[in-house]
Amino acid sequence: MTFQDFNLKQPIMKAIEEAGFKEPSPVQKEAIPLVLQGKDVVAQAHTGTGKTAAFGLPVLNMLELNGEVEALVIVPTRELATQVSDEIFKLGKFLGIRTATVYGGSSYSRQLKHIENASIVVATPGRLLDLLKSGKIELNPTFVVLDEADEMLDMGFLDDIKEIFEFLPSNRQTMLFSATMPNEIKELARKILFNPEFISITKNEITNVNIKQYYYVIDEHERDEALIRLLDYKSPAKSIIFCRMKKEVDRLADFLNAQGYNAKGLHGDMQQRQREEVIRGFKKGNLEILIATDVAARGLDISDVSHVFNYHLPFDSESYVHRIGRTGRAGREGIAVSIVTPHEFKALLRIQKNVGSSLVNKEVPSAKDVSSKKQSSLVESIKEQEVNTEAIELVEALKAEYDISEIAFKLASVVAQNHKVKGSNKIGKSKKEIEWLIKEFVKQKSHSGRGRGHQKRFNRGGQRQRRR
């Protein structure tokens, strides 16, 4: 099956082609025809299976573009709201659609203005309910999507969701997507959907079994140093480093080149010719490190990438799956490395849960570890090195002044100088510290409770924050 089989509008097909989508994923194959038929849908599918396009494409195809908000997508987090909004906008850009992203912590007036001009609103439950209850907005969407429903249950949003649906029209088409189907979600589906079709795309692991996944816990100020240490220790033949923002890509490219690495950035602000040149150089092996944003790397198909590094964790699990899928291709083994701070444990555990695979915690190698590994590698290289004429002439010239042992020591010193390990001996948290941090986070989470009004919520800095 191809996307052509769905008979979508030509502007949508143009966006699909530009996005680099080759063929529909299993959830897209099953969901898109049902949504196009006007049916309510309950889909059980893990993150990373292409859910956004599964509901986004058919909804975009059916919009009347009448100047009203025709579709509402409800998601658990502001990060996912931004991600979903961006993807839907890109898929619908040749239709001329506008999206509005609604979440707590941002200006009411600006969001209200965006809603006035939007065809599709992507919102988190707390802020959306506030706007509806206060009468600041009235929505009569034809299409309503509840995405990551089980995540919203875990975050204590279930009562909010039920209340939100009291403000929505009954003659709507509703879609519910969830990685798991606990009883509370099944009960919710019975209440808000009409005679739905059920789809189940189950996989024990979405990610390639050939990819080993590790994470290293550091303090924020150690991030650059940790990356250098891991690059030195792992010596990747060809690697991609993922960043969240374009400016981060540019800064990191400059930083790594200053450290002697052959690295180039790839992001959406670059001209198409520049992007093609960078990708071509990376494919040919003229470039050892590619630093990219998620959008820039979409559709990249390079079979010999040995390592993927997450300089920062992505905002959502689907991006994580996409990122690490750049390695371990064509039957090869791949390694995925994530650099995280203790404040990112929540995102890390959510990714691990949604993706359904295990990420192993490791200590950042010490300078001594790297030095020892480099020395072993150097010894093997010297053993395998054939003696050439230039080397013989050099040693003969030196023998006039030094004995053979001193020549050997001097030459070894020159070589060793080029393999000197930079940075602090110890970077990041030890295994014991990581285990303690995980226990503390789990304990904190178990005490947080559920439900609007009494749930303790924590921001990325680990500080308690008010419900939005």
What is the structure about, briefly put?
The chain is of the alpha/beta class and 468 residues long. The chain has helices at residues 10-19, 26-36, 51-62, 78-92, 108-116, 125-133, 149-154, 158-166, 183-192, 223-234, 246-258, 272-284, 294-297, 317-324, 345-355, 367-384, 389-398, 404-417, 431-446; strands at residues 41-45, 71-74, 99-102, 120-123, 143-146, 173-178, 197-201, 211-217, 239-242, 263-266, 289-292, 307-310, 334-340, 360-362, 457-458, 464-465. It has three domains: 3-201, Rossmann fold (3-Layer(aba) Sandwich), CATH 3.40.50; 211-366 and 426-458, P-loop containing nucleotide triphosphate hydrolases (Rossmann fold, 3-Layer(aba) Sandwich), CATH 3.40.50.300; 371-417.
Structural features, described:
The protein has helices spanning 10-19, 26-36, 51-62, 78-92, 108-116, 125-133, 149-154, 158-166, 183-192, 223-234, 246-258, 272-284, 294-297, 317-324, 345-355, 367-384, 389-398, 404-417, 431-446, and strands spanning 41-45, 71-74, 99-102, 120-123, 143-146, 173-178, 197-201, 211-217, 239-242, 263-266, 289-292, 307-310, 334-340, 360-362, 457-458, 464-465. A hairpin with a 5-residue loop joins strand 15 and strand 16. The strands form 3 sheets. A 7-stranded parallel β-sheet has the order 3-4-2-5-6-1-7, with helices on both faces. The chain folds into 3 domains: 3-201, Rossmann fold (3-Layer(aba) Sandwich); 211-366 and 426-458, P-loop containing nucleotide triphosphate hydrolases (Rossmann fold, 3-Layer(aba) Sandwich), CATH 3.40.50; 371-417. It is an alpha/beta fold and 468 residues long. The relative contact order is 0.11. The longest helix has 18 residues, at 367-384. The two termini are 42 Å apart.
